[in-house]
UniProtKB/TrEMBL annotation:
Gene Ontology terms describing biological process: protein transport; small GTPase-mediated signal transduction; vesicle-mediated transport
This protein's encoding gene: GDI2
Lineage: Eukaryota, Metazoa, Chordata, Craniata, Vertebrata
Keyword line: Acetylation, Cytoplasm, Golgi apparatus, GTPase activation, Membrane, Phosphoprotein
Keyword Acetylation: yes
Native source species: Sciurus vulgaris (Eurasian red squirrel)
Protein name: Rab GDP dissociation inhibitor
Main function: Regulates the GDP/GTP exchange reaction of most RAB proteins by inhibiting the dissociation of GDP from them, and the subsequent binding of GTP. GDP-dissociation inhibitor preventing the GDP to GTP exchange of most Rab proteins. By keeping these small GTPases in their inactive GDP-bound form regulates intracellular membrane trafficking. Negatively regulates protein transport to the cilium and ciliogenesis through the inhibition of RAB8A.
Location in or out of the cell: Cytoplasm; Golgi apparatus, trans-Golgi network; Membrane
Topology term for the membrane: Peripheral membrane protein
GO cellular component: a single term: membrane
Chief localization: cytoplasm
A Gene Ontology molecular function term of the record: Rab GDP-dissociation inhibitor activity
Subunit record text: Interacts with RHOH. Interacts with the GDP-bound inactive forms of RAB3A, RAB3B, RAB3C, RAB5A, RAB5B, RAB5C, RAB8A, RAB8B, RAB10, RAB12, RAB35, and RAB43; binds RAB3D to a lesser extent. Interacts with DZIP1; this interaction negatively regulates the interaction of GDI2 with GDP-bound RAB8A.
Family: Belongs to the Rab GDI family.
């Protein structure tokens, strides 16, 4: 281990694994370590079911009615992926007119603006132009554009229109949902990027205790593990490795619920995402529900996993998620966790220590993707070019 690397990565959460893969593809010499013996970190998939019971300190083994324990792969933090990076619920003409406008909108073609200045007109004024009601606005902003607050309403409308356009194009790609979800749970994703890193020369070490992050003159120079030092120019890590360099900005409550039935009023769907907009439940933040099932190889046959999450706003977090839990009844078993939201205290430009954010309450990867792109830009000084990464990957795999 006494070598010098361009980048050392600590932690195997999805953010860290994606950045490890990206840096390796870009020709960097990468060493990736984790104190845990498994991939995924905070976003791991737990299997078998017995391990989930142990993790949450529930007495006794799972009941026989839940099937074989090894049939379960339960995500601690579920996230859906947007399929392309219309809706039959609202048949009102003005909303259809709005969606047609969004579909035709092209920020490079002023002929599609219809009197709206995408750099100056606020989204609030766009909604007024199409005479949309509050319920439709809540749905559009939080379920389609995936905003977590209403701050976007008074910002220039261009970004919001493009977010809604992404949702529509993603939905059109597969017809039933704009989202993708990996079989066997999200734990497959970090492993996939770890393999990508390894193909490009990255070195992985699991179950490796981290004794010290070595900093000289305010800048990281290496990591000490089991008496050996690996030197580096830059370090990527999750907040658990540098507790003195992060601060708490809130908390998230998550409740994993095991069901023996699909969620009511979802046409017996084997997966779905439900977003309860903040205004609908007199809150400052949305409540999210992610449901998956045996169709995704994450649960025993006939079983469903629904995970409710939201940003904590009071001293009684479980009461805050009651509107979502009521949608899921009857619930066979619940696993409740409350975790801190941690963010880096600085951008890492001086120390060259780049720290990811903990996962928020959302059930989609949009905010995680933003964090990845932000860290990449701070490390390299340039925007992340996904098309360039695909071209480099295709050089090895020979894909189109």
């Amino acid at each position: 281990m006494n070598e010098e690397y361009d980048v050392i990565v600590l932690g195997t959460g999805l953010t860290e694994c994606i950045l490890s893969g990206i840096m390796s593809v870009n020709g960097k010499k990468v060493l990736h370590m984790d104190r845990n013996p498994y991939y995924g970190g905070e976003s791991a998939s737990i299997t078998p079911l017995e391990d989930l019971y142990k993790r949450f300190k529930l007495p006794g083994p799972p009941p026989a009615s839940m099937g074989r324990g090894r049939d379960w792969n339960v995500d601690l933090i579920p996230k859906f992926l947007m399929a392309n990076g219309l809706m039959g619920l609202f048949e009102k003409r003005r909303f259809r007119k709005f969606l047609v406008y969004v579909a035709n909108f092209d920020e490079k073609d002023p002929r599609t603006f219809e009197g709206i200045d995408p750099k100056k007109t606020t989204m609030r004024d766009v909604y007024k132009k199409f005479d949309l009601g509050q319920d439709v606005i809540d749905f559009t902003g939080h379920a389609l554009a995936l905003y977590r607050t209403d701050d976007y309403l008074d910002q220039p409308c261009c970004e919001t229109i493009n977010r809604i356009k992404l949702y529509s194009e993603s939905l059109a790609r597969y017809g039933k949902s704009p989202y993708l979800y990996p079989l066997y749970g999200l734990g497959e994703l970090p492993q996939g990027f770890a393999r990508l890193s390894a193909i490009y020369g990255g070195t992985y070490m699991l179950n490796k205790p981290i004794e010290e992050i070595i900093v000289q003159n305010g800048k990281v120079v290496g990591v000490k593990s089991e008496g050996e030092i690996a030197r580096c120019k830059q370090l990527i890590c999750d907040p658990s490795y540098v507790k003195d360099r992060v601060e708490k900005v809130g908390q998230v409550i998550r409740v994993i619920c095991i069901l023996s039935h699909p969620i009511k009023n979802t046409n017996d769907a084997n997966s779905c995402q439900i977003i309860i907009p903040q205004n609908q439940v007199n809150r400052k933040s949305d409540i999210y529900v992610c449901m998956i099932s045996s169709a995704h190889n994450v649960a025993a046959q006939g079983k469903y996993i629904a995970i409710v999450s939201t940003t904590v706003e009071t001293k009684e977090p479980e009461k805050e998620i009651r509107p979502a839990l009521e949608l899921l009844e009857p619930i066979e078993q619940k696993f409740v966790s409350i975790s801190d939201l941690l963010v880096p205290k600085d951008l890492g430009k001086e120390s060259q220590i780049f720290i990811s954010r903990t996962y928020d309450a959302t059930t989609h990867f949009e905010t995680t993707c933003d964090d990845i792109k932000d860290i990449y830009k701070r490390m390299t000084g340039s925007e992340f070019d996904f098309e360039e990464m695909k071209r480099k990957k295709n050089d090895i795999y020979g894909e189109d």
